[in-house]
Amino acid sequence: MPLQSQSTAPGPADPLNVERTHVHAIYDQIAPHFSQTRYKPWPIVQHYLESRRPGSIGLDIGCGNGKYLSVNPEVYILGSDRSSKLVDLACSEKAVGKSRFADVGVADGIDAPFVDSRFDFAISIAVVHHFATPGRRVEAVKSILRALRPGGTALVYVWALEQKNSRRGWDEGHAQDVMVPWVTEKDGMRTVVERYYHLYKRGEIESDAALAGGRVVEGGYERDNWWVIIERGEDFR
Which domain covers residue 128, as residue numbers? Predict the structure, then answer.
C-alpha cells in the first residue's frame, strides 16, 4: 500500500477546515488509486454482515468504493460517503449492482440525512478517526447510534495507535493526531498528499461510544485497528 512516513498534525484551530482540506478533498483526489487498494472484505466485517438476519436494513457509513455492499445479498444496505468521487466509483464499478438490495449516495458522517431509529445495523469502517476533534468523533458515533432502531447494533473500526509491529511503527507515546501521506505516480511524476487521522489508543473508542450514549457489546483489535460492536444505551437521546 502506498503509505509512507507520517508527520504530526497541528492542533486543529479550525477542525472543519482540517477535514475539508485533509480528508474530503484528498479522498476526491486519490479516489481511483485508493479504490484499487480496497477490494477484499476484512474477516470480522464480513462475518458481521453475513450474520445479519435476512431482510434486515442497514447502513455503510463511509462506504468508499462500496466493497461491503454486496457481502450479504440477503440484506438491504444504504451506503454513503462524503467523497462524491468514491461514490461514483461505487456505482461505476457496479458494487451496488452486485446486490439485489443496495443503494449509495453522498452524505456527511455527522450530518447524514438518515431517518432516526430506522436501521437494524450499521457499519462504519475506518471513518470516525478522520474527524478532527474529540467532540466531533463522539458526534460521529452518536449519529450512527441515532440511526439504529432499539436493539440494533453497529460495527465501528478506527486506526489504532498501537501498531509497533506494522510498517508505520506507531505505539504508545507517539502523537495521536497525524498527517499520513498517500503517494501516487503517473507518467514518472510522484505526487504526495496528506490525510488527517486521529490514532485511537486502547480503550478510547469504547470511551467515545459511552459518551455518545452507546453500550459496547463486543470489541477487539484487527489489522492495526480497534473495533467495537455497539448498541444504544438505555438512556440514549
Answer: 7-232
**Domains contained in the chain, number:** 1
Domain at 119, CATH number:
3.40.50.150
Instruction: Indicate whether 1 belongs to any domain.
Output: no
Stronger pLDDT, 7 or 32, i.e. the higher one = 32
> Which positions ≥6 away from 167 have C-beta within 8 Å?
3
pLDDT recorded at residue 97: 53
Tell me the per-residue pLDDT of 98-112, one tens digit each, with 9 for 90 and over.
Answer: 555 678 999 999 988
* Mean local confidence (pLDDT), 49-71: 95
- Residue 151 and residue 40: Cα distance in Å, rounded? 29
Asked if residue 165 belongs to a domain, the reply is yes
Print burial letters for 127-150: b (CB count within 10 Å at least 16), e (below 16). Answer: bbbbbbbeebbbbbbbbbbbbbee
- 237 within some domain: no
